[in-house]
Amino acid sequence: xxxxxxxxxxxxxxxxxxxxxxxxxxxxxxxxxxxxxxxxxxxxxxxxxxxxxxxxxxxxxxxxxxxxxxxxxxxxxxxxxxxxxxxxxxxxxxxxxxxxxxxxxxxxxxxxxxxxxxxxxxxxxxxxxxxxxxxxxxxxxxxxxxxxxxxxxxxxxxxxxxxxxxxxxxxxxxxxxxxxxxxxxxxxxxxxxxxxxxxxxxxxxxxxxxxxxxxxxxxxxxxxxxxxxxxxxxxxxxxxxxxxxxxxxxxxxxxxxxxxxxxxxxxxxxxxxxxxxxxxxxxxxxxxxxxxxxxxxxxxxxxxxxxxxxxxxxxxxxxxxxxxxxxxxxxxxxxxxxxxxxxxxxxxxxxxxxxxxxxxxxxxxxxxxxxxxxxxxxxxxxxxxxxxxxxxxxxxxxxxxxxxxxxxxxxxxxxxxxxxxxxxxxxxxxxxxxxxxxxxxxxxxxxxxxxxxxxxxxxxxxxxxxxxxxxxxxxxxxxxxxxxxxxxxxxxxxxxxxxxxxxxxxxxxxxxxxxxxxxxxxxxxxxxxxxxxxxxxxxxxxxxxxxxxxxxxxxxxxxxxxxxxxxxxxxxxxxxxxxxxxxxxxxxxxxxxxxxxxxxxxxxxxxxxxxxxxxxxxxxxxxxxxxxxxxxxxxxxxxxxxxxxxxxxxxxxxxxxxxxxxxxxxxxxxxxxxxxxxxxxxxxxxxxxxxxxxxxxxxxxxxxxxxxxxxxxxxxxxxxxxxxxxxxxxxxxxxxxxxxxxxxxxxxxxxxxxxxxxxxxxxxxxxxxxxxxxxxxxxxxxxxxxxxxxxxxxxxxxxxxxxxxxxxxxxxxxxxxxxxxxxxxxxxxxxxxxxxxxxxxxxxxxxxxxxxxxxxxxxxxxxxxxxxxxxxxx
Length: 874
Known about the structure:
The protein is mainly beta.
């Protein structure tokens, strides 16, 4: 060291002489030299342009930090020094070997032991952090996200929750990315654990963006070019670039090879590139104390300039790396990696002052009390006088130690007590740093992990319901703790069904808070499957987990069900195939996945005698002067209706629509405006109970009539709302009338007949195909499909013949004027004709059958109400 100071003094005198000859700038030069001497703690302090050595020598710290949050490893570091603060992003590993992302900030390396370790909301594994100056944004790149490499952007890298994204950086097989830019291009370098190094480029104006044009730029054995490639700009007058690549040594230990280039798009030349002469490895790293790791693994050169050039100062090189504290017998994902710092020294042996070695328990539990004599001090050399060793705790709410102890002259060891306190704070497991200092001795520190015994209960709050089409609802979910937290806690979040609801992997309960919010993202798969309950669960180790559920509704609804053609006749009791399709208003097939209810009915021949409005007289008239419009009313029947006629007081066309605008039937009408006109339908229209319909009248240059004072109900349902719009269309503008004078006549002479099954199984892609059996004979049988929410559909009418079981005569029915004729064969005897109005309490038909040819015939006058007939063998 003395020789070094003399050399510096000589250099200083040389510079002063030069300054004197120039007669200007003497104080300025002296100031620069003084700053260099003060700030450069090592033995080589060149001016601002140093050459990269061909043989590197490093000195290493011990482990700088212990994992928090239940993690077992901190690794894959990316480090910049910005605004006087170190910003470190890293991979984290939990006890299950699962990777995540973390970050921390601090102002000096000894503070790293006590710096808060924030869990990233997304797993930013193997990160690379740069400030992209051309666009004034920070970019954080990482692997194993939505793409092979993904990136986030932010205006403040010190906020772990302030990142936007993710976005696509690169797609393809790859591992351990880094990005560096020159004035023209952005370059992506990466490895793949296969002995190759790859490169892709894009114009700098397109960055950040997606790289695509990958080429292989270096190849060797797998162990010689393994992973963790980093590329830097070397601060120098002539541009030069440094690449380092992690390799696997002969005994399995990790080390780094290095290469240089004069062009990021050019070829690379080995620099220090062997295990015996590495860039960094056990062959050229000296430890201040015991060698705690034989692995120098994935890390980053400390960059004082954080921009996209990734510039390093060859006069002042430091390397933040991951070291292995104990990997014996462990799988790779369970290795307890810790951060260590390498500092470059000259090729002459480094000077190490005597140091203090400190040993304390690795962990304790809050409230353990006094750990008598479990703190141990050892000096690397004795002192000729009594030595006062000062002790400090970074968190006296957790651990206290004596302020000092005295090691007698000539002795090198001492012990002290640690007191483990229970502060009742809800702050989780805490790493506490114990520091020992003494005059003329290098200071040291050690870390003890204090396990928390304080717990609480989590609760989750969600909206009661949301549609699949809701997209992302920012901050719509929240998680709360039962008490204020005393530290930042990462709360893991899971959705019971990520195909319906996506939540972040985690959110952070911040110090001094009781709750945190998170986004809810709903997946719109366009499937119709009914309301779905999804549960979100929040967890923190050793706390009581919380959960809440919400209902997710379909984004689209079925307008109607379309039946495939059913051939006529069918045989009662015999199954036949049918197809039902769920459709929207435009008859497009929907991805419907639910079952529907099946039923069958027969419409009678009775004429429609019932109306909705009841032939009222108008109290309002609009005198149209040439405009075309459509007006009408919506209504909901509470029983099935058979519409036989349209009634209109004005207009040239009457239509019935579903509530969503699907046209069911339209009929031209002719009449004198101001009088009720009855127009029969060619074929009766069946309207299903519980569904809402709209009946409309179309007019051009015709007066429109309505009332404000009619009731909102009719004997078989409710009238809901009036509508109007210009043109010949389905009207959607709300009207204030009660009601427009357009109506219908209907009957209710339906007979329900049994079918099997009474419901379908689940639809598949909007279609159900299966077999149905109608269990009773009839003419003009209609099949009906109905779903929750009112959607329905009916088949075209078809006939069903009676059952013809072996030894059983077939009963047929035909109409004759105002009578029905029932027939059955005479070749099967001992059957009587019976009747019932309720399908029970059967009685003999009061008509004597007559033989006509080979049949018995019974002619029965049609009566009011429904009657069922069958043959019965006594």
